[in-house]
Amino acid sequence: MVKTTTCEKKVLILGGGVSGLSAAYHLKLGEVPFTVIDALDEPGGNCRTIQRDGFMFDTGAHRIHDKDKEITRQVKSLLGEHLKRINAPSKIFDNGRFLSFPLEFQDVFSRMDKGFTIRAGIDLLKSRNRKGSRDDFEGFAVHSYGRSMAERFLLNYSRKLWGVPCHTLSPDVSGERLKSMTLITLLQNFISRRYAESAHYEGEFYYPDRGIGQLSEAMARFIGSGNIRLNSRVTGIFHDGKRIERIVMDGHESFGVDQVISTLAIADFIAMMRPVPPQDIVNKAKSLKFRNIRLAVFFIRAERINDAATMYFPADRFIFSRGYEPKNRSRSMSPQGMTSFVAEVPCFEQEWAWSADHTDFLSRVREQVVETGLVRDEDIIGCTDERVVNAYPVLEKDYKDNVSSIFEYLSRFENLEVSGRIGLFKYLWIHNLLREGQDTARRVAEKIST
Ligand SMILES: Cc1cc2nc3c(=O)[nH]c(=O)nc-3n(C[C@H](O)[C@H](O)[C@H](O)COP(=O)(O)OP(=O)(O)OC[C@H]3O[C@@H](n4cnc5c(N)ncnc54)[C@H](O)[C@@H]3O)c2cc1C
C-alpha cells in the first residue's frame, strides 16, 4: 500500500549528483526549503571518491576545468586550501609509446614510422578536398585528421567508448576537442603548440587533494544532512497533465510536491511517469542510450607509473579506453611508496564487461594492463572494481530531435525543471553542471515567489 507523506519542503530534487547538489546549494543560499532524494548511500552520484585498502580513486578520471571564472571561485570557496592547481599532461598510448593528447600533428609526424607518416600526410591533404559528409562523427574526424590518423587514434577509441559505429554518432561527441580545426589552426598546430594549449581541456586543471568526491562532500555539508534523503529510489512520478503532483519512492512512499527538479536519466524519468506519456515520447526516450563504465583498479607496489594525468588506449586489443594513476592528481590518493592504476572499461548493461563476475573481469583487464608494459604483474598487490552507471549520454546522430521532442512535451509541466548530464542528455562537465544547478535553482526560486 502507498503511504502518503506530507512534505513540508516545497522543492524535491531528484538525484544528489553534482547537478542536484548544486541546485540544492543555491536554494539553501536563497533560503528556499527543499529535499534531495538519492538512491545511493552517499551523495555525489558519478562525482565521488572511493576508498579501499588505503587507496583512493574516483568514479572515473576527473579534473575540474577552469572554464567558468565564477564557478571556479565558488569551487575555491567550497574547498579552500584543499583545492590544488595541477599541471599534468594527458597521453595517447600507441604501440608501446606515448603521443600527446589531444593529438598534435607535429608529434605524429616526427615520431611515427615513415610509412604511416607519408600515408597520414596524403590522407590529411585528401580529406581537405573531400566532399563527404561531416554530419556524423566519422566524417567529421576524417575531415579533421585524414582517414589514417582518424582510424588509428579516434575512430577505434570512439567505437570502444560509445559502443556504436562512428557514422551513427553526432560530431558533438568530440566535445571541444575537434572544434575549430580549420586549415589555419591546423597549420598553427604544425608550427607551434599554441592551438593545443589554448583550446583543449587537458594540461592544467584543479583537483581537490582528497579526490573529486571532496567537492560533492563539501556541497553536501553546506546543504545539511537533514535536507538529503539517501537510500531512497524514485519509482513513480504522478502528474495531472500540467503539474507533477506526487513522487513515489521505493514503491510505497508518496510525497506531494510544489516544485520538482529532476537530474535523473531522462529515459528513466519518462518511464516512471503516470499517466504514461504519449507513445512517441515513450519511444523516443527508450531510444536514448546511456553508456556505463566499469572500473578495474589495481594497487601497485611502485613509486610511480609515469607522470600522465590520463592515458588513452585507442587500440582494439584493450577493452579499456582510458587509464589513470590517481597519484598524479594528488599524492594522498595512494599510501606512501605505492601507486595505483584505474582502467575504465566502457560497456552497456547487456555486455560481458558489465555482467562479468568480479574475478573474471579483473583478471582479463589485469592481463591487458600488464601487456601494455606499464605495470609489472608481480607489483600488483591488490585489485578491486566499481560500476559507474550512466556515465555518458550516447550522442547519436538523431539525438537532438529525440531530446527536443521529449523536452517540448515536458515543458507543459509548470512545476518541473530538468538539469544534469543524463537529465538533459548533454555532454556536460562539472563546471557546466554547477552553472546549470545555479540557474535551475534561480528559476525555481522565482516560480515559488510569484
Ligand atoms: C568517467 C567520467 C569522467 C569524468 N571526468 C570529468 C572531468 O574530468 N571533468 C569534468 O568536469 N567532468 C567530468 N565528468 C562529468 C561529471 O563528473 C559527471 O557527469 C557528473 O558528475 C554528473 O552529475 P549529475 O548530477 O548530472 O549526474 P549523476 O552524477 O549521474 O547524478 C544522478 C544521481 O541520481 C541518482 N539516481 C538515479 N536514479 C535514481 C532514482 N530512480 N531514484 C533516486 N536517485 C536516483 C543517482 O544515484 C545519482 O546520484 C566525468 C564523468 C565520468 C562518468
Q: Your description of this structure?
A:
With 450 residues, the chain is of the alpha/beta class. It contains 16 helices and 21 strands. Among the domains are: 3-45 and 68-78 and 211-288 and 396-449, FAD/NAD(P)-binding domain (3-Layer(bba) Sandwich); 103-199, Orthogonal Bundle (protoporphyrinogen ix oxidase, domain 3). 45% of the residues are buried. The longest helix is centred in the C-terminal third of the chain and has 20 residues, at 430-449. The strands form five sheets. Strands 8-7-17-18-19-16-20 form a seven-stranded mixed β-sheet. The chain has a five-stranded mixed β-sheet with strand order 1-13-12-11-15. Strands 10-3-2-14-21 form a five-stranded parallel β-sheet, covered by helices on one side.
In short:
This protein is α/β, with parallel strands linked by helices and 450 residues long. 37% of the residues lie in helices and 24% in strands. Strands 8-7-17-18-19-16-20 form a 7-stranded mixed β-sheet. Strands 1-13-12-11-15 form a 5-stranded mixed β-sheet. Strands 10-3-2-14-21 form a 5-stranded parallel β-sheet, with helices on one face.
Strands, helices and their partners?
Blueprint: E1 3-5, E2 11-14, H1 18-29, E3 34-37, E4 49-52, E5 55-58, H2 69-79, E6 83-88, E7 90-94, E8 97-101, H3 105-111, H4 114-129, H5 137-145, H6 147-162, H7 183-191, H8 194-199, E9 203-208, H9 213-223, E10 228-229, E11 234-239, E12 244-249, E13 253-256, E14 259-262, H10 266-272, E15 273-274, H11 279-287, E16 289-300, E17 311-312, E18 322-324, E19 339-347, H12 352-355, H13 358-371, E20 380-394, H14 399-410, E21 416-418, H15 421-424, H16 430-449
Parallel strand pairs: 1-13, 2-3, 2-14, 3-10, 7-17, 11-15, 14-21
Antiparallel strand pairs: 4-5, 6-9, 7-8, 11-12, 12-13, 16-19, 16-20, 17-18, 18-19
Helix pairs in contact: 1-9, 1-16, 4-5, 5-6, 10-11, 11-14
The structure holds flavin-adenine dinucleotide (FAD).
